[in-house]
Structures are given as structure tokens and as C-alpha cells.
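hey m, so remember when u said the C-alpha cells were messed up on ur end? i reran from scratch. heres the input so u can diff it against urs
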Amino acid sequence: MDNHERKSSSSTSTTGSLADLGSLASLLPHEAMLMAIGGGAAVRPEGVPGRVPVEREQALFGELHLLAPIGYFLLDGDSTTILQTNLVGADQIGIDRLAPDRHRFRSFVAPRFLGDFDAWLARVRSSSKPLRCQLQLTARRGDQGIPVTLIGHAGSQYLSLTVEPAEGRLTLVEQSEERFRRIVQTASEGIWELDTSARTTFVNPRMADMLGYRIEEMLEQPLVHFMDTEGRSILERNIARRQQGMAQRREFKFIRKDGAELWVHLASNPIFDARGNYRGALALASDITEHKESADLAWHQANFDSLTGLPNRNMFHDRLRHEMRKARRDGAFLALLFIDLDQFKQINDSFGHDQGDALLVEATRRIGDCMRASDTLARIGGDEFVAILPGLAHVQDAERVAEDVIGVLNRPFDLSGQQGHISGSVGIALYPSDAADAEELLRHADQAMYAAKNGGRNRYSYFTPDMQAQAQQRMRLAADLRRAVARQEFELYYQPIINLQSGVIERAEALLRWHHPERGLLNPGEFIAGAESSGVLQEIGDWAFRSAADQVQAWQKELGRPFSISINQSPGQLRTDNQRWQGHVTGLALPPRSIVIDVPEDLLNEPNGEALAQLRRLRAMGLQVALDDYGTGHAALSQLKKSEIDYLKIDRSFVSGLTGDDGDLALCEAIIVLAHKLGLEVVAEGVESEAQLGLLREAGCDYAQGYVYARPAPASELLALARAGAVPALTADGGVGRNGVSAA
């Protein structure tokens, strides 16, 4: 096989793209160069002798031809119109590479060589082999011609033309060998060559594409042209390092032509000549923008709250420790505010979680408006926020921020056309006076917030040692409650509910009591909040429901007549799955109306909520529903009309002040009339005197309960009262009433 045939067969699979350059590495430098610039033998696909398909011919003019140090042209086979050219070719004849088709190659041949050119062109068109011709080219009329060697090869429709300067060809080939070896080795990376002044002397198409430029737009441009201010400062520091011969690898940010950020992994190496003089640098760039964005997203998700965009607990702790170190170094102090949204749970219960989220976002905006640029606001829980206030001049500055926060949270929140109302409880702890480290400072601010909440909410409170004792007491209470559930230390007491027309005890309200081993008998107000926060309230509520159901069945058998028991339930308890209640009631075979569920009035504000749906399911089980403490909530008459309830319970605050001519009596009468119009029965709570009893009876009230009859008592004493048949009464101190039955 001769040299020409060997080159042709070696090039069979080469299309001119960087992905196919591996085959060039096995060729001699001179052969590889000819293959790269199209000046070697014709590319012959198998089975197609002598001619190259058009699509393969066009593919030849790829990235290698664009970068070749020798001029390369693709001409129309008939007219010699220039269809494509590379960078060197366009420079040789002085045309715009992107608009070559306005020129005919023949017009750039020196006039005295036109005859030679035409004769050579005719031979090329009829030959299957590349042919050479030596002549002179001129870029402009009157210019002195440049001696060149043309190597031409005719395709099916096109003419491939290589233009080599008559002198220096070997040097160009040697330069090309080195350059294309680098391209072969790094074809998938961007390549950037810089001179001693950090100006661009070479980029490959991948590098230009990564930055969104054409190659000729990047050539001769300084590196800083593609950087922002931060990058320029880094470059200034690194130029000296490269001149000292130090290679570098780092992540670097460039700015694309469209203004977007391009993150690359940049490996740069200095270039020195034979004498050891610094000649510039060669950089290899790998696009890591997608990886960088993914890493940034992961970091953001790990450190910021997805709903509000605020720093989360993780980021908050980092910033708090940083600000505490700064305060310690500067001898200053800072304040930590722990902010809890009062009544937020009711918003979720009444309006749903979507509206609850909307309120949190708006609350974040309002609280943020109360902060300085140097402050940090973070969300560390569902409705819990913390604010770090560094560099305060006076303690009163923290109070001012707390007051501002409380004020903005007091304003109504628009929740899809309805108004939601919350408030804020704020705890304040100071560093360094209240704590030595970040965890302790946060814990003390939390305790101060609880003090504000227990003090009536909608206020702020500072941390004191007494608050620490109260926090420890709450923790002990939670532990005691869990133990009480296991040891069955709870008991139901019952207060009778009397039919005001017949005087018969027809019902009773079940009231929870805790036999604490150290503190004695405790009312619900002393432990219910702790039970809810410690997560045992649901278990206690289930026990109370089952116990009351068992008790009412026993009483119905003992009395031989209908009897019912009222049980208090919170919206949170109603939202849980209470199928086990239905199973228990069904197993007891209780008649309808045996159990009444007392719910708070604010439950009616929950639009299509789960708690209301649960009430409907309970009524389907044969249970009844009473609206407790009516008159103190925010229920509208329209909601009352549409709700599935059976009783209204007038709050004791209206009953306790009843006289013959006051406003409380008018309100009670109005409630009774309204309820009866809606087909509901009325229970008056907190009746303490015979005078109140008489006024309620005259107003048409159906039932009453209170100390005028009996205090809450164990089940055995309630049964004795119900058996007596007549209405008993106890003295105000809980002693024996006129029928001689003890309720102590």
C-alpha cells in the first residue's frame, strides 16, 4: 500500500468533529495535519469510489478546519463562490468569515496567474485525486501578491481548497501537531490560551460555546472581559503565581455573553519558551454550573425555611454563635427574642393549613419590617420565630422591637376574604447577662416567652431565675402526666344538669380530675395545657370518653330511665380518627342521645374543616352536640343556623350577673329565643342562686347546672342525687344541702 492509499484508508471513519479525532492520534504529524485541514487524500466511504457524498463533504468543514493554521475553503464547484472558510482563510484574503458567499475565490487570484488557475481548476474537476497549484493571491486590487500553494479536490458538488503559504509550511504543521494533540486529549473540555498579558490567543469551540460567544469575538480579548469584579480581583492575585510556574486548579465563575453565570472547574498551567521565559498560560475548563446550582440548592434547603425563606434552626444557631463571639470580642451585648404566635392553632383549625401558611408568610413580612438590616430573623418551628438583635445601645431597644412585633401581629390578617386574628407572646433573653452559650440563651428566651404567654399573652417578658424554675415545673408536670396515664390516676367527676320544668336530674357533665400523688386533687385548668404540649391529651381524652360511656350505661340501668352525659372535647381531639369511639358506643348498645359532645363556639368558624366533619360523623353515631360557653366566641348567626348542633350552653359570665332589670338578662332571653327558633335547647351554666334560677325559668331556659344544685362530685354521689327525685341543693362551701345528700 503506497502512502496515499494508507492515508485514505486511515481516514475512512473521520468526519471532522472533535468526537472522531481519536483516529488522528495514530497518524504521522504531517498526515494528521493534512487530514485535519482537508489537504490530504479524499475521504472515501466504503463502496463509493472517487466521490464523497454532499453531507460528508459538509461535515468535513467542522471544528478542526475552523481552527487549522492553514487556510481552508469550501467552494461552489462551478462558480468558485466561497461557501465556507476558516479563520486563517478569511484572514488571508481579507473577508468576513460569516458572510463568504458574496465573494468568488477566483477574484482573489493575482491577474497574471488567472490562466494558470483556470487550467488547474479544470484538471481538479475531472480528477479523483487532490491536485496542487502554485500561484499568488491578492486581497485588494493593486496589492502585491502572496505566494501560496493550492491543494484542490473536487467533490460531487463542491470544491475543497487548502491554501498553504509558500514558506513556513513545516513550522505551521509542527505548531498544528502540538495544538491538535492537546485538542485530541481534551476534546470534551473548554481550552483557553492566554498570552503574557492575559489576553486570549486561542479558544476552542467548546470554550466559546460555554461562554456564548463566537470564537473570533473572544480572540484578543483580555480575560477580565469575561469576569465580574470578584473574578478580576482573584485574577490579579493569581497572575503572579502563574508567572512563578505554579499550576492551579479551582472552581471559578465567568460571566456569559447573555449575563448568566458560568461555573467551571479550571485547571491552568503556565507556558514557558525554550529559554524559560513566561509566554502565557493554557487553561482547561469543565462546566460545573449544574453541579454548582444543585450544591447551592442543597445548601439553601439545609439552611433556610422553604415556606418563609427565613434562616431555619440550623442557620440560626450558626449566626447566633457568630454574633455572640462578636459581642464578647467587642464587649457589647445582644438580645434574643423568642416570638410565638398566639391562637395560630385556631387559625389552622378554622381556616385550614393553606390559609395558615399564608398567615405565616404575612407574619414573617410584618415581623421582618420591625428589624434592622443587622438583625437576624429565623423560623425554628411551626409558629415560632427568633430574632437576634446585636449591638444594642440600651436594653430598652429590645423592648421597643418586642412592642413593635406585638403591635403588627395584632392587626387582622386577610385570609381569602375573611379576617384572622392572632397575637404574639415574646420572650427576651440577654447576652451575656442571662446565658453563657447559645443553647442556654435560646432556652432562657423560650422560658421568657412562656412567662409572657402564661401572663395573658399579647405581651413580652424578660428571662429571670424564677422562669427557670417554672420551666422545670412544666417538665416535671409532663413526666407526671405520662405516669398518671399509665397508673390510671385520673377520675371523672360529674355535675348534675336539671330540667328546669320538671326539676329532674336528666343529665350530667363529666369533668376530669387528677389524683396527683403529691399535690392532691387537681382541676383540668392546672394540667390540661401541659397534657396537650406533652402529647398525652389524646390518650386522656380517649380514656375519659370510654369511662363516661360506661358510666352512662350503668346509670341508665340503675335509674331505669333515659340519662345522658356531656363530655368536653377540643377541636384538636375532634380532628383525630375517633373510629374507636364508635366501636365502643356500638359495643355498649347505648340508645341515641346518651352522650353529648361539648365543643367550643369558635369551632363554627372553621370552614369545611375536619373538626366539623368529625362532628357530623359523631352525630351519625347517635351522639349529640352542644355549643359550649356560647356568647364568648365569634360565631355568626348564619354559621349557627347551618351547623349541626343540639344545645346552646349560655356562658356563666352572663348568668352570674343576672338581676331583674340588667343587660345580662336581656342577652340570656335573646339567646334562649334564638335557640328555640332554631330548634335548639338551652343549658345555663354557673347558676349559683335561687334568684338566677327563677329568672332563667321565667325566660324559658330548658336546663341549668351550677352550685345552686351541686358541685362536681364522684359518680356514686351523682347517682344518689339522681335517685332522690327532688332537686337537692348544696351550700356555697360544698356542704350538705337541704335534702341531706353530701356532695363533698
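this time it looks ok to me. The chain is about 40% helix and 20% strand. if urs says something different then somethings off w ur setup not the seq
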